[in-house]
UniProtKB/TrEMBL annotation:
Gene name as annotated: nodI
InterPro entries registered for this protein in UniProt: AAA+_ATPase (IPR003593), ABC_transporter-like_ATP-bd (IPR003439), ABC_transporter-like_CS (IPR017871), ABC_transporter_ATP-binding (IPR050763), ABC_transptNodI (IPR005978), P-loop_NTPase (IPR027417)
Protein name per the record: Nodulation factor ABC transporter ATP-binding protein NodI
Keyword Cell membrane tagged: yes
Signal peptide: none
Provenance organism: Bradyrhizobium zhengyangense
NCBIfam families: nodI (TIGR01288), PRK13536.1 (NF010059)
Similarity field: Belongs to the ABC transporter superfamily.
Gene3D superfamilies recorded: P-loop containing nucleotide triphosphate hydrolases
Length: 304
């Protein structure tokens, strides 16, 4: 990849003798949406903090927008907008004041910031909310305000740590739509998430992490095709171990998690035929997704 927006090479970070980020290499091309996908504790926020130059890696190299990080992180930061995992807004201040305070931080004068406010509020779907106190906003509105605030210096690169965690589905979809608009405007996005659906819908490419290690990398569809490559039948309601024995001859792989059996098979019609005599079953046939990829690579589900 020539001239990537972000490049990590063999990056390590250890806390108390425990490798939290282990030999991580990836690059993010300009204009793409790149995802770091992994469960809680996988090391996502630690990677983000290293990319921003807030903490130093113990080994390895990081380049962001052509600058070595952390040595020249201040220069890189001028071109980056950040959405941290936890909203760090000034609750007692209004929406407008929050944007102005941040503008000052980026060296904008009051007039420049004032001029930016209307279009930022429009982008964030917060029109008419300029004088609301942050404490009175919903969770989704706060998240969109943090996103608007991250855009005040018109950054080319956005780094977002779990942009939609703890939002309801409607608020989440609104954020996704805003992010697509930013991508259409040519921005580069690095986001972290533990939502498979978010990664699948938004990301051009992603890096799947577990315990600080990369376990897979690629375009969501390519990962799904190469790792799974067939439809999935979820079966609940019976005894998974008995069911396993019945369908085994037709399955390329079977996973049992709790009360659910996941059957991966090139010919699901044949599997259904085998199950015809079993009563009380509920069957769900669906295309494969990143959840299946994660399950296959780790042996467990992302939220388990
Ligand atoms: N400052 C720190 N000191 C000690 N351990 C830390 C520190 N920051 C993170 N960790 C540990 O590193 C691991 C990865 O954390 P984190 O990067 O926050 O993961 P994620 O964002 O994927 O949930 C966790 O086990 C966490 O407890
Ligand atoms: Mg985190």
């Amino acid at each position: 990849m020539s001239n990537p927006a972000i490049q990590l090479t063999d990056v390590q970070k250890t806390y108390h003798d425990r490798g939290v980020v282990r030999g991580l290499t990836f690059s993010v091309a300009k204009g793409e949406c790149f995802g770091l996908l992994g469960p809680n504790g996988a090391g996502k926020s630690t990677i983000v903090r290293m990319i921003l130059g807030l903490i130093s890696p113990d080994a390895g190299r990081i380049t962001v927008l052509g600058e070595q990080v952390p040595a020249r992180a201040r220069l890189a930061r001028a071109g980056i907008g950040v959405v941290p995992q936890v909203d760090n807004l000034e609750d007692a201040f209004t929406v407008r004041e929050n944007l102005l305070i941040f503008g000052r931080y980026f060296g904008l004068n009051t007039r420049e910031s004032e001029e930016a406010v209307p279009s930022l509020l429009e982008f964030a779907r917060l029109e008419g909310r300029a004088e609301s106190r942050v404490a009175d906003l919903s969770g989704g509105m706060k998240r969109r305000l943090v996103l608007a605030r991250a855009l005040i210096n018109d950054p080319q690169l956005l780094i977002m740590d779990e942009p939609t965690t703890s939002l309801d589905p409607h608020a989440r979809h609104l954020i996704w739509e805003r992010l697509r608009l930013l991508l259409a405007r040519g921005k580069t996005i690095l986001l972290t998430t533990h939502f498979m659906e978010e990664a699948e819908r938004l990301c051009d490419r992603l890096c799947v992490l577990e315990n600080g290690r990369k376990i897979a990398e690629g375009a969501p569809n390519a990962l799904i095709d190469s790792q799974i490559g067939c439809d999935v039948l979820e079966v609940y309601g019976g005894n998974p171990l008995e069911l396993r024995a019945i369908i085994e001859p037709h399955a390329s792989r079977i996973e049992v998690r709790g009360e659910t059996l996941f059957c991966y098979a090139p010919d699901q019609a044949a599997v259904r035929l085998r199950l015809r005599g079993c009563t009380g079953l509920r069957l769900l046939e669906r295309p494969p997704n990143l959840e299946d990829v994660f399950l296959r690579l780790t042996g467990h589900r992302i939220d388990a």
